[in-house]
From TrEMBL:
It catalyses: Hydrolyzes the link between N-acetylmuramoyl residues and L-amino acid residues in certain cell-wall glycopeptides. GO terms for molecular function: N-acetylmuramoyl-L-alanine amidase activity. This is N-acetylmuramoyl-L-alanine amidase. It comes from Rikenella microfusus. One of its GO terms (biological process) is peptidoglycan catabolic process. It comes from the Bacteria. Its EC number is 3.5.1.28. Pfam families: Amidase_3, Golvesin_C. Residues 1-19 form the signal peptide. Gene3D superfamilies: Immunoglobulins, Zn-dependent exopeptidases. It is an enzyme of class 3 (hydrolase). InterPro entries: CBD-like_Golvesin-Xly (IPR033803), FN3_dom (IPR003961), FN3_sf (IPR036116), Ig-like_fold (IPR013783), MurNAc-LAA_cat (IPR002508), N-acetylmuramoyl_amidase_3 (IPR050695).
Length: 936
């Protein structure tokens, strides 16, 4: 209001004044009249501020000026809008030049300085962007020399990454108990554009950002359950679930203050209800505990461990996870982080899996502590009014995970809201946004985990005709306060600036050149004002705006958003601690697995260049192997060059491989998967090509003018990366004029929630193994290739009895994907001329609008119609809402067979199917290849 009044006063007082500036002299005193004339000349909103207005919800407004008596310095005092934009020295220099030009020759030597909060604008420049002699030492710090909470000992120490760093992380909101009116469990945010903020932020944090930080070497502590697995097994000395059990070796004694599992928890702290085991380390028999979960359902499970911290505990206690593919080794510091769930990782576990706690071989003193091990995320078991939420713990708000994880209620329970406590019925709701900040301090001070920073991911509300964009929030109390260690809270603003700068830079380069850089708020929000460390919130985009949501569900966008945040964090911590950094690489590309002789396979691939990050080049790789169709990947082997030859048994089993890229900054996400296998009684060889590389958001629904109305799951549900648990149901309201009333009636974008928590399956990049197994069953050895590698090199035609090209749900939406590019058409033309049998299958191979006409002519088919399919609702396979009914278009082309409600077309020695062969069960897929081979 104060700024608004000043603005109105400026209009009435100065707009009618047309006087010229007095000619200043070196000896003249700066008068109030002269300062007012300068202000009038420049205007409250100078033109040079205009390009930066979009960055702040408040326009940058010039409020007053101050000219020194010697006329050598002119100070321009601006409103809070100046403090909310990205300040750089070159920007201030440019503004100062514009001021001097505007004021005229008499001021050409005047030093011009800008202020916000009565603070020089130079102070808002992050240290990262300053010259060495202009850095603020109060934003620099020394990293903790404490041994990290947890680290993998069978992985490199990423010295130019985040090794030794500890990061608190959470995604906004989650399901909570609402007592005020209806006494029900409900989502904190409305279901809009097929998702809910409560789950969408979890997708960003758990699937993308947390793994990136951990791949760089960081230990990530999360305020919400991160494992979506609804099954849970607890193994404990007090009480285990199911058939799980503990086996001890050595002299263990029982002590109070440990975890006790209960199927329903009310107000109890489960880490105070049970007991914990302890054993001294001495010569002779070393203490050891084996935790056996005895899983009935093999699958992917998160593994948590726990202990009771004590000054005499080992700082290098060893946990070894024996999973379906091998073993993973961890070292934990048991002097910190006790009586809480400590994350080790996701693993493929089966009935033989186990977790072993032991002391290192060279340990000869100290104490080993053992409490419960938790496998899987599980279902929520914190009761309100006698009832639990009924959803997985992954879907619940942070407040319930904190209670289950041993946090005292004094940290997360807000008991004194107002003198009359009239808001008591909303306590759970308030806990969810106030508890996170206090939790960070609890983790750092009471648990002694040396957190380096805290970050919460949210999405914002707001509707506009373009992109709402990205907002960051920090807290400096207008630069008036410091952290308890005396360091400046402007370090938090630096973090907010670096993260937002990276996000906007990367998204403008890859998605929208006009991606909006919003404000950097300095706000007293509990999530970031209470932590005694640099802490920020990132409002990534607007969940209420159709233009933002048109790309927000795109897995590639999620990856790039998370990667930008990770890079911002990496740069901030490297700068704060005076370290060099390297960004972890992108996943390798152009994989292929080639059979060599009769006893080995040659794998080759290419490094993926990151055009946005020159340091992200790999210098070595890790190759992972899996045996069979139901096996799990091993822990991999490190190689220096993008090629390796590995032995291969002639046992009729498919062997699969994936590759990650490494450098001094960390490990990339995995590549797509290629497979190979040798038939016991070989009757020939086949090549399987994976052309299904698509991941993308649901189809857009637009009006006649091209305006985006929303997302249409029925037309095309999109293709998630592996699985998307943030998709909650189809959009129901496509009317831009529908107003928001409340969370139950949110207006435009309103969506149903029948899929909440379950989500939909996506592209696993792992289909060559099933096709290959079917070929092996027909006596054909096989090798496989990514489509990129296949396009680059023509296979030797005489080498193969069959080439099988998987197109799955590949189509030209988003536009970065295609079915037949010119390189692939060239390869197909060469193969058909050589009379090599080719099988092509996929949901859009006839109907995709961007298929070149010469491809259809070459293959001799067209799409007669699209046929809806009941397979759209399968929980274990990407969705295929419709198939292509193919029709021959040339002489010599015939309907090869009827499958499901569609057909296959044969053209010479090529076979085309307008549906993904992956929807067939194993026996049907084997029979199909048998028929094809017998017809040749």
């Amino acid at each position: 209001m104060k700024h608004a009044i000043l603005f109105l006063v400026s209009i009435f007082c100065f707009n009618s004044i047309n006087a010229s500036l007095p000619e200043p002299t070196l000896s003249a005193a700066a008068t109030k009249t002269e300062q007012q004339a300068i202000l009038k000349k420049l205007g409250r909103r100078p033109d040079f501020f205009l390009p930066w207005r979009c960055e702040s919800i408040r326009s940058v407004i010039l409020e007053r000026v101050q000219l020194s008596s010697d006329r050598k310095t002119l100070k321009l005092y601006c409103n809070v809008g100046l403090a909310q934009i990205a300040i750089r020295q070159e920007l201030l220099d440019r503004w100062a030049d514009a001021v001097r030009e505007k004021l005229g020759e008499a001021y050409r030597n005047c030093a011009v300085r800008f202020y916000a909060y009565n603070i020089p604008a130079e102070r808002f420049i992050p240290n990262y962007f300053r010259e060495k002699n202009a850095r603020d030492p109060r934003r620099e710090s020394t990293p903790s020399d404490r041994r990290p909470l947890v680290r993998r000992t069978d992985r490199p120490l990423y010295g130019r990454g985040l090794a030794g760093r500890h990061i608190a992380l959470w995604g906004g909101h989650g399901r909570y108990y609402h007592e005020e009116e209806d006494s029900v469990w409900k989502w904190q945010r409305p279901a809009l554009f097929c998702t809910i903020e409560d789950l969408n932020t979890q997708e960003f944090t758990s699937r993308y950002l947390a793994p990136m930080l951990e791949n760089a070497g960081a230990a990530v502590v999360m305020a919400r359950e991160r494992d979506p697995q609804p099954e849970e097994i607890v193994i404990d000395n007090d009480r285990s679930t199911g058939n799980a059990r503990m086996e001890t070796t050595g002299n263990w004694t029982e002590h109070p203050g440990g975890f006790l599992w209960q199927d329903t928890i009310h107000t109890e702290n489960p880490f105070r209800e049970g007991t914990v085991l302890q054993a001294g380390i001495a010569s002779g028999i070393k203490p050891e505990i084996t935790y056996r979960p005895r899983l009935e359902r093999p699958g992917e499970y998160g593994v948590y461990v726990s202990w009771k911290a004590s000054p005499g505990n080992l700082t290098n206690a060893r946990y070894t996870v024996y999973h379906a593919g091998g073993k993973a080794e961890f070292e934990v510091n048991q002097r910190i982080g006790g009586s809480m769930w400590v994350w080790l990782g996701h693993f493929a576990l089966d009935s033989t899996s186990k977790i072993v706690l032991s002391a290192p071989d060279n340990a000869n003193a100290g104490t080993l502590s053992a409490d419960a091990v938790k496998i899987g995320g599980g279902m929520g078991n914190i009761a309100r009014a006698g009832a639990v939420s009924g959803v997985s713990r992954y879907e619940e708000a942070a407040r319930y995970w904190m209670q289950y994880g041993g946090v005292p209620d004094s940290v997360y329970a807000q008991e004194t809201l107002s003198p009359d406590n009239k808001d008591r019925k909303q306590l759970d709701y308030i806990d969810n946004f106030k508890g996170n900040g206090d939790w960070c301090n609890y983790i750092r001070k009471q648990k002694r985990i040396p957190l380096d920073l805290a970050l919460g991911l949210h999405t914002d509300a707001g509707i506009c005709d373009s992109i709402v964009g990205t907002l960051t929030i920090h807290y400096t109390d207008r630069c008036r306060t410091n952290y308890t260690n005396g360091k400046s809270k402007l370090a938090g603003r630096d973090l907010a600036d670096l993260v937002q700068t990276q996000i906007v830079h990367d998204l403008r380069a890859k998605y929208d050149p006009a991606w909006t850089r919003r404000s950097m708020y300095d706000k007293s929000y509990a999530e970031i004002s209470r932590p005694d460390m640099p802490a920020i919130l990132v409002e990534m985009f607007s969940h209420q705006n159709a233009n933002d949501m048109a790309i927000a569900l795109d897995p590639a966008f999620r990856f790039d958003m998370a990667r930008a945040i990770y890079k911002g964090i990496l740069r901030f911590l490297a700068d704060r601690y005076g370290r060099n950094y390297t960004v972890q690489p992108l996943p390798p590309s152009a994989l292929k697995a080639e059979l060599v002789g009769g006893d080995s396979v040659r794998l080759s691939w290419e490094a993926t260049k990151d055009p946005l990050e020159p340091t992200a080049a790999p210098n070595r790789y890790r190759v992972y192997r899996r045996i069979g169709t139901d096996g799990a990947f091993d822990e991999g082997r490190e190689v220096r060059f993008p090629e390796i030859r590995m032995p291969l048994k002639r046992d009729g089993k498919p062997y699969s491989y994936r590759v990650t890229a490494l450098n001094e900054g960390g490990e990339s996400f995995p590549s797509e998967i290629v497979s190979a296998g040798l038939a016991v009684d070989e009757k020939g060889r086949a090549l399987v090509v994976n052309g299904f590389t698509r991941v993308g958001p649901p189809a857009l629904k637009k009006d006649g003018n091209g305006k985006i109305l929303g997302l249409d799951l029925e037309a095309d549900p999109g293709v998630p990366y592996i699985r998307d648990r943030a998709i909650v149901g189809p959009q129901q309201d496509f009317n831009p004029l529908s107003p928001f009333e409340d969370n139950d009636r949110p207006g435009w974008g309103a969506s149903s929630t029948e899929s909440a928590g379950r989500g939909i399956a996506g592209n696993t990049f792992d289909y060559a193994v099933r096709h290959g197994a079917a070929l092996l069953a027909n006596g054909l050895s096989f090798e496989s290739s990514s489509c990129t590698a296949f396009e680059q090199t023509l296979p030797v035609p005489s080498k193969y009895r069959l080439i099988d090209i998987i197109m799955g749900a590949q189509c030209s939406y988003p536009s970065r994907y295609s079915i037949y590019n010119q390189s692939l058409i060239n390869r197909l033309e060469e193969l058909l001329e050589a009379q090599v049998p080719v099988v092509i299958s996929g949901s859009y191979i006839g109907s995709d609008p961007d298929i070149p006409a010469d491809a259809k002519k070459l293959l001799g088919y067209r799409c007669a119609e699209r046929i809806p399919t009941p397979y759209d609702t399968r929980d274990d396979l990407y969705r295929t809402p419709a198939f292509d009914r193919l029709q021959p278009t040339q002489d010599g082309c015939v309907v090869a067979a009827d499958y499901l409600p569609t057909t296959g077309v044969r053209h010479g020695r090529s076979f085309l199917f307008g549906f993904p062969l992956e929807i067939l069960n194993d026996n049907s897929l084997q029979d199909l290849f048998k028929q094809i081979l017998s017809s040749l």
